[in-house]
Each structure stands twice: as C-alpha cells, then as structure tokens.
Fold:
Amino acid sequence: MAKWGEGDPRWIVEERPDATNVNNWHWTEKNAGPWSKEQLKSLLQDLKISKNGIDCKITEVEKINGEASANNRKGKLIFFYEWDILLKWEGRLAGGKGELVKGEVQIPNLSEENDISEVDMTVTIKTSGEEAQRLKTFMHNLGRDVIRQQLKEYIRSLREEFSKGLILPKKGESTVNNDTVSTITSGFNKKISMTPIESTPNQKPIGCKIDTRSIELTEKFQCRAQEFYDAMTRIEMVTAFTRGHVKMDVQKGGKFALFGGNITGEFRELVPGKKIVQLWRYKQWPDQHFSEVTINIHEKDDHTLVIVKQDAVPSSEVEQTSENWKRYYFDSIKRTFGFGAFL
Structure:
C-alpha cells in the first residue's frame, strides 16, 4: 500500500504538465455566485410574457440572494446553487380601461435540490379589481412557465460555463474528452431519507429519565485528514454526500440540519483537520434529547483514520444509529468523493 506521495497517482503532481490536480482526483471549486447573478438578471430583466392580447413584462430583478459554485471531484462535476429571487412585473389587458397593473413574483427556492418544474413561485398584485385578478391569473399560469424556461437556461449555461477549466486533461492528453466527463448536481436529484426508527411503547417523554448508551465507530478513508474534515464541514460537500438540502453554520455554537431535517444539532468544537464535536439528535428521539458526537480525525502514512464516539444515544436505538452512521455518512462519503479506494 503506497504512502502519501509514494506511488499513489493522486499525489504524483509531476504526472501533469501543469503539476496540478493529478487525474482530477482532488476537490477543486469555482465560485459561480457573481456570474450567476449577472446571468439571472440578463435572463429575467425586461422579460416579456404575452398571449391573447395580454401583455406583461418583468420590469425589475429586485433581489437575488444566495450562492452558487462548481466543483470537480474525480472527474465528476458537481454544481451547487441556491437562490432566493424577487421580481417586479407589470401588465395590461388589451383594450383594458384600468390603470397599469403591477405586482411581484417571489422565487424562494431555486436550487439543485428541486427540478425546475418543482420550483415554487408566488405571484402577487398591488391593486385590486377584475382586470388585476385576470392579470394575476395570467402570470400564475403562463408567466410562471415562461420564467421557469429562463431559469432552466440559467442552469444549462451555468454547467456549460463552469465546466471550462475544472476538468483538466490527463497525462498525454491535450484536451478533455467531454464524452467521458460526468455532470451531476450536488444533490444528484435524489434525496436520502434516513431509515426511521420505530417508536417503542416505553419511549420516555421529555422530563423523564432516558436509558442511554455510548457507541464508538472507526473507519478508514483514503484521503487527507483535511479533506475528510472539509467533507463534514463545507456545505457544498455535505450537500453532495447527503444528496439533499443542507443548513449549516460552521462555527462554535452554529446550528445544522441534514437529511431533510432528520438530523439536527449544534457545533461545539471545531479543530480543522483534527476534530469535530457536535450536539446531535435524530428527530425520532424524545423531545429535545441530544447526544454528543466527537469525531477524531487521524492522518496516517497511507490513510486517514476516523473515530466517532457518540454519547447519550437512547438504548433502544443504538443499533440503528450505528447502521445509519455507516450507511449515510461513511459509505456515502466514500462513494461521492472516492475516499474508499485503496491502491
């Protein structure tokens, strides 16, 4: 088994002409936020929506809050984006006698977690009356479809623009063969739902003493210690291996929610590349009961050893909790980032 930098092709940088990211193995990232804001504005500003004598137009892109990034891991492109958008619109009925109708379109959840057809949009108007209601209905029905097409174009252009330069040619190649490059979203368009734990008749409500146990798990990963730490703390990497929306504030006292809210908690200690301590609970546990998870990360000559100790796990759920760590954390991290391949 090769030691770090001794025979393992992921670490032999001289194999590449530019001595960077050999075989595209390492996680590399581009910030797509500023570009995305400009692209969304250009696609939505002054967008005309007309049919059957009804004319509407997006007059202003008032708000675009969020972030986007493009990442490469092991020759796969992973895109992460999450936007909250507010548009202003106006319209008039053909031959209408009333004043120009104005309103807003709120798009709170443009993200890789949702298919374009699932992106929520709320249409509102600032005036009342029959003509205003007809225009609102028009924007709700046809307007949302036209806007979704523009959002679909944004996603297509994001992938096209930020694929450039992320996947590097391998040794002996002058260009990248795009036919061999996989493009996936950070959520893989497939959410993970952690296996529910059946509630038992003797499960104690809040305020009662709960019988608990500790568990300890060890796992080897073929990566640097810092890479594993990043996989547990960088929101785009956590999104990738959990395959769903992630809320995470990575600082002492910061909250997190994973796997559709099944796992929630708080960071208690963070030592980059070495240690993570969390308050951690599964939503099926008795109300407000938290365990404490300590993740110690030890970089060895040829692998990284991870030791997870979890205290105060309800006794009836020890076996399932251990299985969920292996399945939804360890195995998923290895599959997503290639951290399980020992050469």
User: Anything to note?
Assistant: Residues 54 and 138 are 8 Å apart (CA to CA). The first strand starts at residue 28 and ends at 31. The two ends are 6 Å apart (CA to CA).
